[in-house]
Design a protein that fits this description.
CATH architecture of one domain in chain B: 3-Layer(aba) Sandwich
Strand order of the largest sheet of chain B: 6-7-8-3-9-10
Shape of chain B: globular
Order of helices and strands of chain A: HEEHEHHHHHHHHH
Largest sheet of chain A: 3 strands, antiparallel
CATH topology of one domain in chain B: Rossmann fold
Helix content of chain B: 25-40%
Number of helices of chain A: 11
CATH superfamily of one domain in chain B: P-loop containing nucleotide triphosphate hydrolases
Strand content of chain A: under 5%
Number of domains of chain A: 2
Number of strands of chain A: 3
Distance between the termini of chain A: 28 Å
Structural class of chain B: alpha/beta
CATH topology of the largest domain in chain A: MetI-like fold
Order of helices and strands of chain B: HEEEHEEEHHHEHEHEEHH
CATH superfamily of the largest domain in chain A: MetI-like
Bound molecules: adenosine-5'-triphosphate, magnesium ion
Oligomer: heterodimer
Radius of gyration of chain A: 28 Å
Strand content of chain B: 15-25%
Chain lengths: 325, 302
């Protein structure tokens, strides 16, 4: 079946279609399989007991989860008090996982019900509203990052003078953790979306300047020199040669940085008034609806993966001359 | 002058042609040119006291040992490097920065990969202020000239090496530069393609008003193409000699076999390779290679 299995173990060798498909499938199937094992096979982990019959224990209710040892202790107590007790009257339960590890099917259901369940209070947003809010925060933060970061990066990558002016400070600032500016951002920008957008901006802007300047520097200098000998210089040269020359790589950089923006989102949404998907997650965790928490986390992953896939596809169309990657 | 070893092949016609070239107005005047690079805090002198004048519509080749500063000289003329001392005059004006009057064709392919062949050729035209509508037919004409009509809308990565260089040449020529600088433009091509490209280049050069400054390390190429060959010496680069090529124009197909050609080549070889680069060192390395034992299934036949 896999006549070129050896390709799996040869460095940097392209795989055949079948192997690629199998491995891509496996990359999702393996973690899901592990999750299923932990959830559905009773003797793997399952450190708690879900009560099916309280059996006279005062604090046992049907459906509550207790640790195995506590359950056993209560059973032993009952037996000690009355050794001839009918076993059917003893407390009974099934092995269960803690509430924070919902089973796959519960999460899959939650993926749907989370959207259809109305919020607890009237003034609270639905899940899709929360998500949309998050996406807007990311989009604005990233937009402002690009508006300033890309031109500065290109300048720094093109002119040594700009590089010396821009990069040292950027290099320093990029080590300051963006969340550390949370309190400051709230003090300056208020409690609503502005400080959140600012955190995403701070988290991505400085990286962006440095990454874009590195990308710009990788542009084949012969192209710049050729354009100079053809009578093109200054800002015009940047627009006509540097920018299109780095565009495919710039696009790839943006895809990677967009991923980072999502990681800053969670912190950003916690400052000021909690909002968006993070608000949903914390709220659901408070109600111990961990299936919803998992569902929300999955949705973030799915949105990220899908946007990246769309952008990758789009990139291939936008840059037909770019043969590599 | 009579003592020069190549004089025996200089026929009256060739002599006459050479004299006429030298009477033309100079285009490019290199005067007392010096250039050093700083490398790890040390100054490395690359060009010393280079003096040379190129005349209108002349074909000049530059040869010299590797690292003697040929590329540096071309880049200085193009304005891509700063001049330390001395000057380069284009039509009497000092060269300070790159400009469209000096086109350049690089050894590495330097076509803009995001532009089609047509757009590449139009690039310089548009930069010089031409409108798209006038630039396009002009570009197409150039593309026709080098037989790439079928590839007008292709991207550079879809072309072979020879085609890419043809586009690079017409991209530079479309701008109508006074001097075309070419830095080993055909070095990466196979011999057959190279000869074809050389013929193309001569054909184009004969039909337009342009001076070509062509760098090569291939002596055959230099003799085949040039009116005069500028021979540089290494460490630091200096003008060793300017050789008049004793071959009639247009070049005959069998010119490579003529005694004049071979004589010139032998003479150039004596100029360029007068000092072999550390031959003993190489011999040592070879000895070491021989001492390495190789597991071989077949017995040594040497
Ligand atoms: N930007 C630079 N910085 C430092 N040294 C340089 C630079 N450019 C060239 N050199 C040095 O200048 C010398 C001449 O280089 P150049 O490229 O002009 O030689 P060349 O004659 O074109 O050689 P080749 O035939 O190998 O192309 C070399 O010793 C090289 O190391
Ligand atoms: Mg060179």
């Amino acid at each position: 079946m896999f006549n070129n299995l050896s390709a799996w173990f040869t460095p940097r060798t392209p795989l055949d279609k079948q192997s690629k498909r199998l491995l891509t499938f496996g990359s999702f199937a393996i973690p899901i399989l592990l999750w299923c094992l932990f959830s559905y096979v009773p003797f793997i982990w399952h450190p708690q007991v879900e009560i099916t019959q309280p059996g006279g224990v005062s604090y046992f209710r049907e459906g509550t989860l207790v640790d195995k040892e506590i359950f056993q202790k209560e059973v032993d107590k009952k037996l000690a008090a009355n050794p001839d007790l009918d076993p059917a009257l003893l407390p009974q339960g099934e092995p269960a996982n803690p509430v924070y590890l919902p089973a796959p099917h519960e999460v899959v259901t939650a993926l749907y019900t989370a959207f259809t369940t109305p919020p607890k209070r009237n003034n609270e947003p639905w899940l899709h509203e929360s998500l949309w809010h998050s996406i807007q925060v990311i989009a604005w933060g990233f937009f402002w990052s690009m508006v300033f970061g890309v031109p500065l990066g290109i300048l720094a990558g093109t002119y040594a003078s700009a590089s010396h002016l821009i990069e040292p400070f950027t290099e320093f600032f990029r080590y300051l953790p963006a969340p550390a500016f949370g309190a400051l951002a709230v003090a300056i920008l208020g409690i609503y979306d502005a400080p959140k957008i600012a955190i995403i901006f701070i988290g991505t802007f400085f990286q962006m300047v440095l990454i874009v300047s590195a990308t710009t520097r990788k542009l084949n200098i012969a192209l710049v020199e050729a354009s100079l000998t053809l009578g093109c210089k200054g800002l015009r040269m940047i627009r006509r040669v540097v920018l299109p020359g780095i565009l495919p790589d710039l696009y790839r950089d943006m895809r990677i940085l967009l991923g980072w923006a999502w990681t800053y989102l969670i912190v950003a949404e916690l400052i000021g008034t909690s909002s968006g998907i993070t608000w949903f997650i914390t709220q659901q965790a408070r109600y111990k609806n961990f299936d919803n928490v998992f569902a929300a986390i999955l949705i973030i992953g799915i949105i990220g993966l899908i946007t990246d896939m769309i952008l990758a596809r789009l990139g291939k169309r936008l840059f037909p001359w770019h043969t590599s990657k | 002058m009579n003592s020069h070893p190549l004089n025996e092949w200089i026929t009256p016609e060739i002599q006459d042609r050479n004299e006429r070239i030298l009477k033309r107005p100079p285009v490019l005047d290199i005067q007392q040119l010096h250039k050093s690079f700083e490398h790890k805090g040390k100054q490395i002198e690359v060009l010393r006291n280079v003096d040379f004048t190129a005349y209108k519509r002349e074909f000049i080749c530059v040869v010299g040992p590797s690292g003697c500063g040929k590329s540096t000289l071309a880049r200085l003329i193009a304005g891509l490097e700063t001049i330390d001392d001395g000057s380069i005059l284009m039509d009497g004006k000092k060269v300070t920065s790159p400009g469209p009057d000096r086109g350049m064709v690089f050894q590495s392919y330097s076509l803009f990969p995001w532009m089609t062949v047509k757009e590449n050729v139009m690039f310089g035209l548009i930069e010089s202020g031409m409108s798209k509508t006038t630039a396009e037919p002009e570009a197409l004409q150039w593309i026709d000239l080098v037989g790439l009509e079928k590839f007008t809308e292709s991207y550079p990565h879809q072309l072979s090496g020879g085609m890419k260089q043809r586009v690079a040449i017409i991209r530079a020529l479309a701008n109508q530069p006074k001097v075309l600088l070419m830095d080993e433009p055909f070095a990466a091509l196979d011999p057959k393609n190279r000869l074809k490209m050389q013929q193309y280049l001569l054909e184009i050069w004969q039909n337009i008003d342009i001076t070509i400054f062509f760098i090569t390390h291939d002596l055959d190429e230099a003799i085949y193409l040039a009116d005069r060959i500028l021979v540089l010496d290494a460490h630091p680069g200096r003008v060793k000699e300017v050789v008049n090529v004793p071959l009639p124009r247009p070049r005959a197909n069998d010119t490579f076999l003529s005694p004049a050609f071979m004589g010139t080549k032998a003479y150039l070889e004596s100029l360029v390779h007068h000092e072999e680069e550390e031959p003993e060192d190489m011999e040592d390395k070879l000895k070491m290679v021989r001492m390495v034992s190789v597991n071989s299934d077949v017995p040594d036949i040497f």
